[in-house]
Amino acid sequence: MEQSFIMIKPDGVQRGLVGDIISRFENKGFSLKGLKLVSVDRAFAEKHYADLSARPFFNALVQYIISGPVVAMVWEGKSVVATGRKIIGATNPSDSAPGTIRGDFAIEMGRNVIHGSDAVESAAREIALWFPEGVVGWTSSLHPWVYEK
Ligand code: UDP
Ligand code: MG
């Protein structure tokens, strides 16, 4: 089953949005496979965002991610990567539809509350980076009430 790396950024933690955000993924029917509150250092944040290292906002982005603890999560389910991006909303909260996390909770790109993997391949890379210890293997007893088979 597909997995995505979802991270509540420092502003989401500071603003007390952790419970609401987790509820949105739970309510959809996705399964939580990994969860931890962590503070990461600059080198780790730079590795997570390595693909963006040439962009003008890179330093500010890294500074943002290391400015406080984040909630790192692995969510599992059918098409969770693409659907997770829809639940999160567009990168720029000005373009995020109401009803999405960024549409409901954010105003600026540099304070957009949450990260979600953009592809199955990047999800695998990010999960390996953030959860080198691995995640928890379990199956929800609600599975047959969420999936046809
Ligand atoms: N970002 C920014 N300015 C930009 C583009 C991105 O501050 O012009 C930040 C924003 O917080 C975004 C993160 O960099 O979430 C990673 O950028 P990406 O393009 O991967 O967006 P995402 O996948 O998070 O929607
Ligand atoms: Mg991205």
UniProtKB/TrEMBL annotation:
Write down the chemical reaction(s) this protein catalyses: a 2'-deoxyribonucleoside 5'-diphosphate + ATP = a 2'-deoxyribonucleoside 5'-triphosphate + ADP; a ribonucleoside 5'-diphosphate + ATP = a ribonucleoside 5'-triphosphate + ADP
Q: Name one Pfam family in it.
A: NDK
One of this protein's GO BP terms? GTP biosynthetic process
Enzyme class label: transferase
Q: What is its EC number?
A: 2.7.4.6
- Cofactor(s) this protein cannot do without: Mg(2+)
Nucleoside diphosphate kinase-like domain residues are 1-137
Q: Identify the catalytic residues.
A: H115 (pros-phosphohistidine intermediate)
Q: Which GO terms describe its molecular function?
A: ATP binding; nucleoside diphosphate kinase activity
The residues listed in the UniProt record as binding ATP, with positions renumbered to this chain, are K9, F57, R85, T91, R102, N112
The answer to whether the entry has keyword Ribosomal protein is no
Record-linked Gene3D superfamilies: Nucleoside diphosphate kinase-like domain
**Per UniProt, which keywords does this protein have?**
ATP-binding, Kinase, Nucleotide-binding, Transferase
Q: Which residues form a coiled coil?
A: none
The family classification in the record reads: Belongs to the NDK family.
Q: What is this protein called?
A: Nucleoside diphosphate kinase
What organism does the UniProt record list as the source?
Answer: Kalanchoe fedtschenkoi (Lavender scallops)
